[in-house]
From TrEMBL:
Alphabetized UniProt keyword annotations: DNA-binding
Organism: Sphingobacterium gobiense
Every HTH tetR-type domain range: 6-66
Name of the protein described by the UniProt record: TetR/AcrR family transcriptional regulator
Record's keyword annotation contains DNA-binding: yes
Length: 204
């Protein structure tokens, strides 16, 4: 892929992210995105054949941003607890900033878990791998003891996801996604869970 194509694709993802985050998936059209970009619809469809493929690419773009923030923080931070707390907080911040984007993915998962699972599964694995490396850093610093990094990272992520599901007061048949007002409460609970979880891994 040429550098020019890379630049155009990045521009499309950035503009589409803003529109999806503000208006949501259902209320956004490919024609509107093309107009925002000053592109022809034909050019937009050259890069992304339909709105679903564009949405999936935008979701990946946002997840990459989430992971990158944590990677940058990891390079300058030492303590495993501080890194994990930052990872949880930055994830919540990005979800809040892109509320309509993530709300749609959650509602689609409820309606069609098999199809959305194909898209979300790889994202979960990448986040798990990052958490696994954070735990490994904690072991290298002799802060914690971990037998299986991937398994322990999965357990931590499942615990954090459980905090979110447990707090939501919606009917289970509805979209399991927090309202904007619920983010702070969920973040507080997740931060406490990180501390409790790490306490069980302390080497001392």
């Amino acid at each position: 892929m040429s550098k020019n194509v890379d630049v155009k694709r990045a521009k499309i993802l950035d503009v589409a992210k803003r529109r999806f985050a503000h208006f949501g998936m259902a209320k956004t059209t490919m024609a509107e995105i093309a107009k925002d970009l000053s592109f022809s619809k034909a050019l937009l469809y050259y890069y992304f054949p339909d709105k679903h493929s564009l949405y999936t690419a935008v979701l990946e773009h946002v997840v990459n941003e989430m992971l990158s923030r944590v990677e940058v923080y990891m390079k300058k931070a030492m303590g495993v607890e501080g890194i994990l707390l930052y990872a949880v907080e930055s994830r919540m911040t990005i979800m809040r900033e892109n509320y309509n984007l993530f709300e749609y993915s959650s509602s689609q998962f409820i309606q069609n878990p098999g199809e959305m699972g194909k898209n979300i599964g790889p994202f979960f694995e990448r986040i798990r791998d990052q958490y696994s490396r954070i735990l490994k850093k904690g072991v290298e610093n002799e802060e914690i003891e971990v037998d299986d990094f991937n398994e322990t990272a999965e357990l931590l992520l499942f615990s954090l996801m459980g905090m979110r599901v447990g707090i939501l007061s919606k009917d289970l048949n509805d979209c399991l996604f927090p309202t904007p007002d619920e983010f702070d409460l969920i973040l507080t609970k997740q931060q406490k869970m990180v501390k409790i979880f790490l306490r069980g891994l302390r080497s001392n």
